[in-house]
Amino acid sequence: MDILKERILKEASVINSGVLKLDSLLNHGVDPQLTMEMGKEFAAKFAGETITKVITVESSGIPVAFATALVLGVPLVFARRKKTLLGEPDAYCERVPSFTKGIVTDLIVSRHLISSEDSLLFIDDIIANGDAARGLIKIIEQSGATLKGIGIVLEKSFQAGGRTLRELGYRVETLVKIQSLDDNTITFAD
Ligand code: 5GP
């Protein structure tokens, strides 16, 4: 997605060789028009699949997942991130490390929101090590729903998340791949 690459080059900053700051587009602010374009891209990529719901993780995945769900005409579910010591009997729950916050949180999805009848499309903002995605996949497995595919706006392909999920057999589609953030420079993979 060339327009997204241009915006990344203009608006992102390299924090270090592993982390990109992209607040204006993905992690703090939202460009509704560009976000709708992302949603259309994902909807087109997964047009051959029957999807009953889009699922994501709060908070940065929500805008693009919403856009995708709107184009596909299906509901959106987002996993809550909570730090909880209490069990949640009415929810599926998986503990995952947070890449940017350096803490562990619980991903929680109410049991009544997804079921074995669902064919899900998982949409998220960025993939690094893939911990959030693996946590959500475990929740989807617990629910008995089918995961039809994974759409990620930005894959840092020098980190293992995307590769690992593909090796596990999941269909992972990304809008932009970053090959390196070394020397304070954003290098795209294609
Ligand atoms: P993972 O679980 O794949 O290691 O990390 C995924 C989550 O961490 C993403 O949903 C994203 O919010 C956050 N994240 C990972 N890498 C980056 C990064 O380079 N920049 C920002 N802003 N967030 C990131």
Structure description:
The chain has helices at 2-11, 23-27, 32-45, 62-72, 131-143, 161-167; strands spanning 13-16, 19-21, 53-57, 76-82, 91-97, 104-110, 119-127, 146-156, 172-180, 187-188. It is of the alpha/beta class and 190 residues long. The chain has a single domain (2-79, 89-177), classed as Rossmann fold, CATH 3.40.50. Strand 9 and strand 10 (187-188) form a beta hairpin. Helix 3 (32-45) packs across helix 4. Residues 19-22, 27, 60, 99-100, 124-133, 161 line the site of guanosine-5'-monophosphate. Guanosine-5'-monophosphate (5GP) is lined by residues 19-22, 27, 60, 99-100, 124-133, 161. 5-phospho-alpha-D-ribose 1-diphosphate binds at residues 128-132. It catalyses: XMP + diphosphate = xanthine + 5-phospho-alpha-D-ribose 1-diphosphate. Belongs to the purine/pyrimidine phosphoribosyltransferase family. Xpt subfamily.
Cα(first) to Cα(last) distance is 10 Å
- Share of residues in helices: 25-40%
Hetero compounds: guanosine-5'-monophosphate
Shape: globular
Order of helices and strands: HEEHHEHEEEEHEHEE
pLDDT < 50 runs, ≥5 residues: none
> What multimeric state do the chains show?
single chain
Classified by CATH, the class is Alpha Beta
